[in-house]
Amino acid sequence: MDMQTFSDRQNAVFVRAFPVLVLGVAGGFFDAYTYVARGGVFCNAQTGNLILMALGLASGRGLSSFRYLVPVIFFVLASFVGEAASRFAFRRAGENKNGGGLFYYHLVVLIAEIVILTAVGFIPASFPALLPNALISSAAALQFHAFRDMNGIPLSTVFCTNNLRLLSGHVFAAFADRDRAALKRAGKYLLLIACFLAGVVGGYFLTAWAMHYAILFVSALFSALAVWGLLARRAARKNKRDTEEKEVP
Could you give phi then psi for residue 154, rounded to 5 degrees? Predict the structure, then answer.
């Protein structure tokens, strides 16, 4: 059972446009934060870290080049956890037929990210950057696995490469096939990319001002998003009960 099946359900509140766009902003913030305050590395797009490691080895920097490999390793390990958790959640949601498993999976991932990012915010700037970068890479991996669509449209909230590819494909289809629906989908990808870039810009200025504490802004943002999700689910369940009561003769 795929993500689109669940996104059509009323309980899958975290795959609606608003929370996904918020997560996109956070994704851009992560990279700006680690680049400005945590040693000039990227926590989301691990391709960049692999390139920096290879360039370091090629330029003769020796073992110090392998520091770029640490966030990559943590990203992979967190991806294993995220994949296992998502399979479990999808199986439970399929058994329950109500989307509850998926909702709680998203909620648990948000809470895990809040805990990780809050811990990072209190790691001093003088501390070696390996640990905070590894932790943020773990949070990015969990987010990547948990939030992979917006109202049935596949995407990523932690990097832009695949979003750009899909955006280009839909723009091409819109003009080549005169497909208005494709143009609307392209607009959604463009909006998400804009949110990601806004997160980068906001992350740069907030990190330049607050330094290692800046990541606490994302913790607060995710906390508000978790509360919003709980309230939205509660309202949806109440509306469902009210509708069922009205239908009873």
Answer: -65, 140
Q: Work out the mean pLDDT of the chain and round it to a whole number.
A: 86
CB burial of 154-182 (b: ≥16 within 10 Å; e: otherwise) equals: ebbbbbbeebeebbeebbebbeeeeeeeb
What is the amino acid identity at position 38? R
Q: How far apart are CA 137 and CA 143, in angstroms?
A: 10
Query: b/e per residue, 103-117, with b = 16+ CB within 10 A?
Result: bebbbebbebbbebb
Residue 113 falls within a domain, yes or no? yes
The residues, ordered by sequence, that sit 6+ positions from 110 with a Cβ below 8 Å of its Cβ are: 14, 222, 225, 226, 229
**Number of compact structural domains in the chain:** 1
Any domain includes 247? no
In a domain? residue 90: yes
**31: pLDDT confidence band, cut at 50, 70 and 90?**
very high
Q: Could you tell me the residue range of the domain that residue 93 belongs to?
A: 3-242
Q: Give, in order, the Cα–Cα distances in Å from 29 to each of 60, 76, 90, 117, 225.
A: 32, 20, 29, 12, 16
Q: How far is CA 222 from CA 106, 215, 241, 242, in A?
A: 11, 11, 29, 30
Is 17 in contact with 151 (CB distance < 8 Å)?
yes
| Range ranked top by mean pLDDT from 21-30, 62-71, 240-249 | 21-30
pLDDT of residue 9: 47
Q: Is the model's pTM score more than 0.70?
A: yes
- On whether the CB atoms of residues 116 and 135 are closer than 8 A, the answer is yes
Tell me the pLDDT band of 15, cut-offs 50, 70 and 90.
Answer: confident
- Residue 185 to residue 196: CA distance in whole angstroms: 17
- Is 130 a domain residue? yes
